[in-house]
Amino acid sequence: MSKFEFPPSIKSRPVYGTLEARPGKAHLMIADADGAEAILGIATPDLMAKTHIIYIPRGAAFADDLRALNPAQFYEGPSYAASVSRIRRVLQDAHMGLQVYLTGTEGLMGQAQNEAMMAGIPHTAIQTEHRGSVARRMQCVHCKGITEDVETDPFQCSHCGLNLFVRDHYSRRLAAYQGVCIDAEDPGNVPAPKGIYE
Amino acid sequence: MTIQFNDETFRDDYSFRNSDWAIKRFPFPFHEDSYMYAVNMEQHRGGPEGSVYEKRFDVDEHYVSEMRDRAMVLADDPLRCQSLPHMTLAGWDLLELIMVSKSEDYPDLFELHRDGDTWRWVNKPLGIDDTFTFLDDTTLPYGPMEYITRQTQGDFCVLDQRDNNLWMDAGMVTTQADWSLDFDIGMNFFEWHAPVPLAHEKGIFKRALKFLLNIQQGAPARRLNWTMTVNPLLDTSPENYHKWGIQKTTLTPENIGAKQHLRVELQTFFRLPRSNALVFPIRCYLCSFQDLMTMPKWGRRLHRVVRDLPDELATYKGFIDNRPMMLDYLSQFDDGLPTSPGVWPDLETEPPLAK
User: Fold this and answer.
1) Is residue A102 part of a domain?
2) I need a labelling partner for B155 at 20 to 30 A (CA). Which of A43, B233, B302, B331 fits?
């Protein structure tokens, strides 16, 4: 599957790279959906012998391919929320030099990166590669509620119901983009939603 | 001098008013007849007597009412004041800086009595007399940053310095020009400024950061920034934008002089001694167009600045839709005469309006 080229943007917007196998005695790879393909692309028997893979398929059919890599540990989770306590536990045990690889949707990478940062790993030391959906995890600046997998701009906040426009301003701490009321100065004047990158 | 504190509001009935004294000392931000982003830093070591630049932390007639408004904002939304766990020491640094500065600069209003670690702080305008142990969080009713910034006008960003960058890791932000501390906390200098147009391309932030990283103890700096606000509303936060945004549509040619305010931020920068953090107070001053027009030079100049401002900046500052109405109003106060250089009103030397 070809990778989506995000258009140039402002400096708070995350930039993703391409995973590469780095030297290290322990590797943690966290992926969702099409992110599996990025792992399959760098996997070698030596690397996998030292790798813990945490994978959330979200309907994609790569779990068996990943399992077949024979990673040192493999976990398939039904959702990020279900997996996060395991991720925290793994990071808590991590030793200096753990290599962290995140791949898949922005929401998955952002949230997992935040967990790694809270465990003391600088965000600049974490590898990321975007794969799959370009939907965004958004925080409503008004009610603070987070809406996952936002595909259109504007969108309606799933918590307070305001119509929000999708900003490129991004918070690593919240792992979310910012949504701001679009019709505050002209109530009811909400443009028809379109894809964020259309 | 003794300050007469106003009893006024910055919401609902908007009873906020500037006295003649406050108008005369308003920090008019335009030193020439046009405006473009610049780093525009200068030393913050006093200024003309009576000006807002004279003291380290200016206290004016709005002090008591501004602090009441801050308490209301915090009661509605405690997330306006946050401090990441590693910033507590910087909060104590800030408390010390403000208490020492205010008690020295305004001895009739504030007193600080220090006996070793036992400190007694007296804030007469707010009726506070507290004794606490310096560096012991349990002896104050709030964290040190929150305690002292509930008693000091202006927003406060406390910036950690590491990796050759500044990080917005703590703050008290209730009078902001439409940015969210809760969203931006933890960001570095380039990230929290990311939404600002044009300035990145001009290298403004790279130069500003280099300057700020090198600010030394005892050598604070300052600059001005500005925007426009309809009604004297301090809390122009993104959090509440869905509530106040509509007020921008209430301007009419009849009420614009009273309702439209120039909003000026006096931004200062102090190095903090123990934490090596940088504190960045952002003090907001509001002045209605009609009050500004009492200074002929400011009337001429504001018209020219607003008229010639690039569209991107008028959009970013949120007044592009109201600009034509502003210009209709302001043009009445521009007779085409030249203006003297610098920000001061120069009332004695500038000619009265000739139209």
Assistant:
1) yes
2) B302
Interface contact flag, A13 B193, Cβ < 8 Å = no
Residues A122 and A38 reside in one and the same domain:
yes
Chain-chain contact of A172 with B186 (C-beta, under 8 angstroms): yes
With beta carbons less than 8 A apart as the criterion, state whether A57 and A32 touch.
yes
Query: Is residue B56 flagged as an active site residue?
Result: no
Q: Given CB atoms, is A113 within the 8 Å cutoff of chain B?
A: no
Ordered per-residue pLDDT tens for chain B, 355 residues = 589 999 999 999 999 999 999 999 999 999 999 998 888 899 999 999 999 999 999 999 999 999 999 999 999 999 999 999 999 999 999 999 999 999 999 999 999 999 999 999 999 999 999 999 999 999 999 999 999 999 999 999 999 999 999 999 999 999 998 899 999 999 999 999 999 888 888 898 999 999 999 999 999 999 999 999 999 999 999 999 999 999 999 999 999 999 999 999 999 999 999 999 999 999 999 999 999 999 999 999 999 999 999 999 999 899 999 999 999 999 999 999 999 999 999 999 999 999 8
CATH number reported for the structural domain that contains residue A49 in this entry = 3.40.50.80
- Identity (one letter) of the amino acid at B228? M
Domain boundary (A103, A130, A157) is at A130
Is A12 within the bounds of a domain?
no
CA distances to A132, B50, B342 from B47, in Å: 58, 8, 14
Q: Is residue B8 part of a domain?
A: no
Tally of structural domains, chain B: 1
Q: How many Å apart are CA B223 and CA B129, to the nearest integer? A: 33
Chain A: residue nearest B244 by CA? A184
Rounded distance, CA B138 to CA B258, Å?
Answer: 46
Chain-centroid distance, C-alpha B271: 18
Q: Which residue in B182, B194, B242 is closest to A162 by CB distance?
A: B242
Residue numbers in A near B195 (CB within 8 A):
10, 12, 167, 169
Find the domain containing B98 and state its range.
20-333
Residue A173 forms contact with B (CB below 8 Å): yes
Determine the residue of chain A that is closest to B79 in CA distance.
A144
* Tens-digit pLDDT profile for residues A150-172: 999 999 999 999 999 999 999 99
Domain hosting residue A87, numbered range:
27-130
Judge whether B11 lies within some domain: no
Beta-carbon separation of B246 and A187 below 8 A: yes
Position B1 scores a pLDDT of: 55
Asked if A10 lies within 8 A of B239 by C-beta distance, the reply is no
Q: Given B180, B185, B193, which is nearest A141 (Cβ)?
A: B180
Q: Are A107 and A56 within one domain?
A: yes
Instruction: Answer whether A12 sits within 8 Å of B238, measured CB to CB.
Output: no
